Structures are given as structure tokens and as C-alpha cells.
Amino acid sequence: MNNRIGKRTWQFSAPAIIASYATTAGIKENEGPLGGHFDFIFPDNLFDEASWEKAEQKLQQYALEIALEKRGVESDTIDCLLGGDLLNQIVATSFTARWAGTPYFGLYGACSTLAEGLLLAGTLLSGGFAQRTAVCTSSHHDTAERQLRFPTEMGVQRAMTAQWTVTGSGAYLLEKGQGNIGVTCGVCGKIIDNGTKNNMDMGTAMASAAVDTICAYLDDCHDLASLDYIVTGDLGHIGWEICQKMLLQRGYDVKNKLLDCGMLIYDKKQDTHAGGSGCGCSATVLGAHFLPQLTEGKLKKILLVGTGALLSPTSTQQGESIPCIAHGVVIEQLH
Amino acid sequence: MNNRIGKRTWQFSAPAIIASYATTAGIKENEGPLGGHFDFIFPDNLFDEASWEKAEQKLQQYALEIALEKRGVESDTIDCLLGGDLLNQIVATSFTARWAGTPYFGLYGACSTLAEGLLLAGTLLSGGFAQRTAVCTSSHHDTAERQLRFPTEMGVQRAMTAQWTVTGSGAYLLEKGQGNIGVTCGVCGKIIDNGTKNNMDMGTAMASAAVDTICAYLDDCHDLASLDYIVTGDLGHIGWEICQKMLLQRGYDVKNKLLDCGMLIYDKKQDTHAGGSGCGCSATVLGAHFLPQLTEGKLKKILLVGTGALLSPTSTQQGESIPCIAHGVVIEQLH
Fold it and tell me: Among A141, A159, A175, which residue terminates a domain?
């Protein structure tokens, strides 16, 4: 039986097995600390496409193609694909779903979309609606920059609090059955808006949402000791600092356990300021860094907390503060 | 037990009871055939807000507030809110979720979002993850026009094949338990792209997706005779015509049973050309027209097929064709 643990944590009757996964990334990401761990590197930001947007779609489609190939199955065996991206109307994901030809739920959770997708995929599998699901997300620095900030060619000086949108994608096949690693439970995030309005400092805005979800999970499950890491994706350096201080105020000392995908993907020398961000950030770091360690038994259990800033350029221009969300999923080694 | 019927239809172990619902709409919508059946009419397109976008958010929040009031419950009793809208980064819905303070999954399915939300809400309820869910969607003619087409003030001459974005919203509370009407099963849509590129003619683009989902359901369930209506939302006059012809070619004569929300909401005299569209179209027509008839026993069973054109202005400018989707849900009188 699927269960509620405590107030907000959903426990799946059986783990959603992560049967296969793949990541694609750009040159800059491959020059960072996780270089060599991605499945496919795009040689430039266009990769033979006529636009950055089309290249982003290719990043995502390649990730899904590789994940399917590793599993030795075709896309028509996917009962449901869930995903999203940062492009207006999430076109990168919808065109990937067109290629896949599978049933599809489009999601929008900004940088939390991967966790949102993993959580919903888990509910569909354990609810008995699917045997195999796919979760895909992507982002591309140049598409995000020109859509959400300034024309990319302007080369506007970036604030030191700003994060750098990751060029990359991750695709995950979640299935019913037996396997080595799986998603066992999760927390659906709430919108938390701490009143900040600076769209060049998402970490400060998103930290409160991450704290809400992490506390919801720890209050429900009381298992901080059994977690190897709480992995936020992606607060960056500034948000990570705020998050761990706020958690300490709430009674949870997680300093040695709190990692952030936005801090792991780039080296400080790469001049990305506050770190990485984008739907592709947690999507690549999970697959390139954490899942291999879980598979090899170096890690036993992590709480992935995808954080998203759900503002739009229009809402910012109209003076609104930044509504943020964080969805959490527990990923474990199963035996 | 939740079940798969045939290839693609998901059957819920117990119906997702539609325990309450409410609709809000603009003046033009209230001057149409469904006038007088909406719960709240906005007196103008701004309704004391500083922007159309803020007014759209208010449309959605009011719908949810009224639905909660009718049910006599507060928003904190909602286990999960699902929804979306047409605004970039679905900000109308995220700000509504901020007001509600509930766990929230942001969705993007363009005009199919209501059906996507109802289907996912059904899986969460019957999967044992929630007792009460809310599904909200909205659209606003002036926000959609300036974001997706031309600056609204330009008053560009509209193509005769174009549809008019509905100013309106619907909020639905779906629950576990006993009730008069409920969602009993549904079909998750696939992306169908028939190659058309004319973003002033969505009906032609979306008809193929509607046909795919309707046939998936009828092939699985063989119950055309028991359906009072198949309700597409929103193909408009042109798409409806194409849809029923294509269904006939596939062996399903639905001419007297096929209705379309985009055709029902405006009178031909209102000069909306091919009919209504937008996330608020099926959201208002379902609540203002069909659910009351199901509640009163005038109808027994409908298949609501939310249709969405998942293009973006950028994908159109870059020469892409229009990827479309249709999600289906069966709504029945239960006793």
C-alpha cells in the first residue's frame, strides 16, 4: 500500500526502480569537476542545429535515446514520459515527447522539474498506472539567458549573486520491478515566497522553499542519521549557506550532509559566480555524480531536493516577489 | 485496484469525486450562450489590478476560493493542487498556489491543462497519495494575445481560422469518498504533430491529437453508446469539423455526440471567428455547462478531451510545426 508518512511524505508501496539513466552536457560543464562523467558531450552550443533552442531539444533527446539504449528498449515501451524545461511553453520537452511518441505529461517547476517528475513518476508506478516511465529535463545557457535575462550576445555583466544556467540534460527510466537503486518516497513542495524580488539572486529566494521541504521530510521521517546527503538542486553558494543556517535554526544540523548540485557542477575558477542552475543542473549532477555512487554502494541513501524559482520576466517587471518551490525525493540503494 | 483497460486507458479503483467546483469569467464570456452560469463575472479585464496578468491570477484565485467556500473547507485541507495556465512560466497558477499554501504540481499542457490536471489528480487520489486535490487553470484574452501573438493594443486583424482566448478560470475539488459525480478513468495523451505550421489555425493542428486520444479510449473501452457526449476542449469550429470526419474514417460516427468547448462558449455573432480557446475555455465550460447537467441527471457520462497546441512563439519563428496533445477523462454520474 502507498502510504502517507507523517504530514507530507508520500511513501511508495514499492520503490520506483531507476533502471537506466543518461546525461548530456556542454563543453563548460565537462570542464568542471564532473568532467568525464557525462554520457555525451555537445562539442559546441549549437551542435549542427540552426538555433540554441533546437540544440537544447537535441540535448534532451540524446539523453533519452542513450538511457533507452542502455536499457535495451525502444521508446514505445514507455507508458508515460514526464518532464519539462525552462523554455517558454516547455518546447524542448514537448518536441522530445514528439520524437518518443509516448503518452506525455508536461510539467513546469523551473529547476525543480526533475524532482517533480521523479515524484510523479513514482506515484504513477506505485499507483498501478505504468510499468515504465521516463523523466527528462533540460536547460541550455544560451536559451535561458536570452529568454529570461538579456540578449545573449550583449554579454551583460552578471551579478555576483547570479547563477549560470547549465547546458545539459538528464533522462531517467523509472520502472516497476527489481533493481539496485530506486525512489522510495518523496515530498510534494509548497510555494514559499520569502518576499525577495532580486531575480539575479535566486539562491536567497529558493533557500526558504528548500528548508520547508527538507523540514517536512525530516519532521515526518526522523531519519537524518540514515541519509548520506541532502542534495539541493540548485541553490548555489549563496542559497546553500542560507539554507544550512535556516535548517540549524529549525533544529537540524546538516552542515556536513548538505550538498548542492549548483555548487558541484562548476569549479569556482570557472567564473560562474554563485554556481549552476537550470532544469539541466540537478538532472546532470544526479546522473553523473550521485547515482553511480549509489549503484556502487558508496552511498546508501540521499534526499534530492529540486528547487525552483517560479517567477517570470513579466512577474518581475510587474513588481512581484519570487514564488519558489522544492520537491523532494528519497533515492536509495535497495540491497 | 487501479487498472489499465486495453492499451492506454487508466481506470481508477474508485472514482475521483468532483466534490465542488467554480468558474469565473469575463464580460464577453458572460454575453455568450453560457451567460449567467458562471459563479463570478469580472466587470472588466483588469478588475482593479495593475495588469492583465495580475487580473488573470485573480480570476483563478477567485475560482478556487469560491470552490472551497461551496465545499465549506479551507485551502489548507487540500493535499495537492495541480494546475497551469498559458502565461510564460505559468505564473498565474503559481501565484494562486502561493495564496493557497498547499503542496503544488505545476503543469504545462496549454489548453489541455485542465484535463491533464484532472487525470493526474485522479491518479493521486486512487493511488492513495491524497484525500482532496484541487485542479485550477485559467486564461485571459489580453495576456495571451500580447504574449503569444501581437501587442494587444495593436488590434491586429485576426485570421478567420483563429480562435479567441477565453478570459476565465475553473477550479475543481476532487476527493476520495462518496459523491454524485466523479472522474472514473482517463487517457494520457501523446504528442501528435500533423505537420501544420499555421499558428493562426490551431483547430487543424489539434484535431489529430484529439482523434488519437478519442480512438485510444474507444478502442479500449468500446462504450461509445454509453457516452452522452465526447467534449473536446477546444478545437473550435474548424477543428471540430476535421475531428469528426477523421473519426468517421476511423470507424467512429460521433457526429451527434461530438461537442466542443470552443464552440459552446461564444455565439457566432460575437465575432470570435473559429471559437474559443485557452486553458480557461474547457475549465469554464465544464463547470458552467456540463457538470450541472451531470449533477442534475440530464447527462450520465461524458468524455472530456482537453486539447493543447504545445508550440511557442519561438518554435514557430524557427520554422517548427505544431506539436499537439489531448488528454481525456471520463466524468460520470455515479448513482
Answer: A175
pLDDT tens-place string over residues A97-134: 999 999 999 999 999 999 999 999 999 999 999 999 99
pLDDT, one tens digit per residue, over A299-309 is 999 999 999 99
Beta strand A258-260 with A229-233 is parallel
Q: Rounded distance, CA A48 to CA B188, Å? A: 33
Contacts of A107 in chain B (CB under 8 A): 105-108
| Domain coverage including residue A15 | 3-175
Which residue's C-alpha cell is 451527434?
Answer: B256
Say if residue B209 is in the same domain as residue B225.
Answer: yes
Specify whether A13 is located in the same domain as A48: yes
The model's confidence at residue A230, banded by pLDDT at 50, 70 and 90, is very high
Answer yes or no: do A313 and A168 share one domain. Answer: no
Judged by CB atoms closer than 8 Å, whether chains meet at B123 and A102 is answered as no
Confidence of residue A154 (pLDDT cuts 50, 70, 90): confident
H or E stretch including A105? strand A104-106
- Rounded to two decimals, what is the model's pTM? 0.98
Phi, psi dihedral angles at B169 (to 5 degrees): -150, 155
- Select from A175, A192, A224 the last residue of a domain: A175
Q: Are residues A261 and A288 in the same domain?
A: yes
Kindly state whether residues A236 and A145 are assigned to the same domain. no
pLDDT (tens digit, 9 = 90+) per residue, B149-171? 888 888 888 899 999 999 999 99
Question: Tell me, what's the ipTM?
Answer: 0.98
Instruction: Check whether B105 has a pLDDT greater than 90.
Output: yes
Min CA distance, A297 vs chain B (Å)?
A: 30
Asked if B91 lies within 8 A of A315 by C-beta distance, the reply is yes
- Give me the phi and psi of B106, to 5 degrees please: -80, 135
Residues in chain A with CB shorter than 8 Å from the CB of B94 are 191, 310, 323, 325
State how far the Cα of B147 lies from the Cα of A58, in Å rounded to an integer: 26
Q: A108, A118, A317: best mutation site toward chain B, by most B Cβ within 10 Å?
A: A108
C-alpha A301/C-alpha A13 separation (Å) is: 18
pLDDT at A1: 78
Q: Are residues B227 and B102 in the same domain?
A: no
Q: What string of DSSP letters covers B315-327?
A: HHHTT----EEEE
Mutate to test the interface with A, among B87, B89, B140, B194 (most CBs of A within 10 A): B89
The dihedral through the CA atoms of A200, A205, A211, A212 has a sign that is negative
Cell of B215: 480512438
Q: Which three cell numbers stand for residue B166?
A: 477565453
Question: Which residues on B lie below 8 Å from A189 (Cβ)?
Answer: 103-104
Rounded Cα–Cα distance for residues A82 and A48 (Å)? 27
Is residue A133 domain-shared with residue A15, that is, in the same domain?
yes
Which triple of cell numbers denotes residue B280?
480557461
Q: Based on the domain organization, do A186 and A171 belong to the same domain?
A: no
Give the whole-angstrom CA distance, residue B40 versus residue B66.
9
Cβ contacts of B107 on chain A, cutoff 8 Å: 105-108
CATH of the domain at A67: 3.40.47.40
Cell 489531448 locates to B326
CA-closest candidate to residue B165, choices B274, B273, B259, B281: B281
What is the pLDDT confidence band of residue B233, given thresholds at 50, 70 and 90?
very high
